[in-house]
Task: structure prediction
Amino acid sequence: MKRILFVDDEQPVLDAIRLRLHRMQSQWQMTFVDSGARALAELEASHYDVIVTDMRMPGMDGAQVLQTASARWPEVIRIVLSGYAELQQTIRLVPVAHQYLSKPCESPRLENAIERSLKLHELLRNEQLRATVGRIRKLPAMPRTYSKLLNVLAQESVTVHDVAKIVSADTVIAARVLQIVNSAFFRLARRMTNVEQAVTYLGFAAVRNLVMSAEVFTEWKASTKTDILDLERLQTHVLRVSNATQALTAKTAIADDSMLAALLHDIGYWVLMQECPEELAEALALAQKDGITLHEAETRTIGSSHAEIGAYLLGLWGLPHSVLEAVAYHHDPRRVPQTEFDVLSAVAIAHSLTDPAEAHAFDTKLADDARIDASYLATLNAPLDWAEVTRRVSESLDAGADET
Result:
């Protein structure tokens, strides 16, 4: 039985949630408390998988509850359910709340948010790793992109396209922008995956406030090159895969999701560099010693690869399943049953045909993934053949090289 903790200082609200979620009693063990102090006492006494809390409460508000929970019980998935719909408040909650739902929240939406969160446990089964990812409050933005974005936002003539282009050049900033815009504050009809549309919804002021928030972003103290990994090179690889993915999916229904998945497919390395640098170094040494792929060495050493770890983080932040799936399995798409050309196959093919691979960011020769070829494409009922695939990817890489 999964355990869910609901926190709200208004007893009628708790009673209404209890009634609306009554049918889930066979699957969830639900506890309802009317204060932040009682919530922390429950977390101290018992294990919980998810906490859903109101924001405005006397004594200890929801933000304080989640701050304590993220520090002491980081494996617990943290969701805000609040009628206080103010954008700056949402941005303030980014470091401690994984998702933000607005009151009134229809039962199916609340139920779906909790179910999606619990489903993530299947993606990352190691509870210690879930705690490692769950305690993340901020990730490093690329210094060059960070300063460039702030400079552009200060210009009166700046356009949405200008800002979106820079946001899309940084994995971490793009992920955070999409996390904010997909919070229930905006009450979108569907989850948004287009960065330019997200910037339009947020507005320049909100993007500037988000980027300048010391609680959301950090910076590497020296440069983006470490003893293990050169993040500048890794970001270059990410953008090449994103360009190739765009070429494969242009003017299709999966274009936005595919481009976002490509942009975020290696975000797990930002997590590992920040939270597990020694374990990542061990995985790199193992990959070199045994001649295996780095993601396989990561699984042996850490318990999961950067791909699953990144997908789990994005799932906590509420990004769409198609994006999570592509991030989790971009090294080995055959692990997922597929009959159609989808987000996963588009990213995996683009990744396979893009050189240099992310391994080049490690300044060493590593084993390559099993190559994806025409036989894989033939199983997908794809709208283009292998010759067209390779032509589009090649042209996208040439165009990207010209831009740089």
